[in-house]
Amino acid sequence: MPRNATSKTSSKSTKAAPRGTKASATNAIKLLTEDHKKVSELFDEFEKMKKKGDDDEEAKQLIVETVCAELTIHAQIEEEIFYPAARDAIDDMDLLDEAEVEHASAKQLISELSAMQPGDELYDAKFTVLGEYVKHHVEEEEKEMFAKVKKSDLDLEELGAELEQRKMELREELGLVSDDEELEDEEGSATKSTSRKNVH
After folding, report:
1. What distance in Å separates the CA atoms of residue 110 and residue 165, rounded to the nearest whole number?
2. Where are the alpha helices (DSSP H) in the chain?
3. Whole-angstrom Cα distance, residue 73 to residue 170?
4. Do 23 and 17 form a contact (C-beta atoms < 8 A)?
5. Cα(first)–Cα(last) distance of the chain, in Å?
6. How many CB atoms lie within 10 A of CB 181?
7. How far apart are alpha carbons 106 and 133 in whole angstroms?
């Protein structure tokens, strides 16, 4: 994987920082919560389309593909980095075990949705159920797990930098626009919806 791709996303502040020392260090919980908010808004957008009877299949597919890609990356950085750190820092293995099982259920639905098209039987229903799973998972994570992690002695800034770096690598592997590039596009001429079209 080309390593120079990271310098583009951090060019505003400094040159690419080595893993774990990104210039704009982000608190791990803040980063994960922002991910939750982003997908939650997209689930809400999809539900509004359904309620209005909007049959714009291209718009629906774009939302589904975007959410599935974001959730795939989010689950992977949690499983690779955040959950192992949390297991060392807090005394609640049941909570972490349940979170991983919830991820497995979500991944199953993501896999099924990736093989479907809007208009297929159960397409909308599967995405709605995925949203319900995710909202339940997010609520438990934010109210219980994150609360316990905040009280632990974990270095959330260092962990956040590691999560952010891995997230950039995974976005690059999937051929997705990074969050920073998306912001640059918005400041320039492209809109957020245009930049989302890279999710394929």
Report:
1. 24
2. 5-9, 28-52, 57-77, 83-89, 93-114, 123-140, 146-151, 156-173, 179-187, 192-196
3. 6
4. yes
5. 19
6. 18
7. 7
Looking up tokens 């997705």, which residue turns up?
176
Q: What string of pLDDT tens digits covers the 200 residues of the chain?
A: 333 333 333 333 333 333 333 334 489 999 999 999 999 999 999 999 988 887 889 999 999 999 999 999 999 999 999 999 999 999 999 999 999 999 999 999 999 999 999 989 999 999 999 999 999 999 999 999 999 999 999 999 999 999 999 999 999 998 886 555 554 444 443 334 333 333 43
Three-state secondary structure call for residue 55: coil
Residue the block writes with tokens 């992977």: 76
Q: What are the structure tokens assigned to 116, written together?
A: 């479907």
In sequence order, the 6+-apart residues with CB closer than 8 A to the CB of 179 are 9
pTM given for the model: 0.76
Lookup: tokens for 46: 């999809």
Q: Distance (Å, rounded) from C-alpha 79 to C-alpha 89?
A: 15
How far is Cα 97 from Cα 61, in angstroms, rounded to an integer? 32
Nearest to 22 by CA among 32, 11, 36, 35: 11
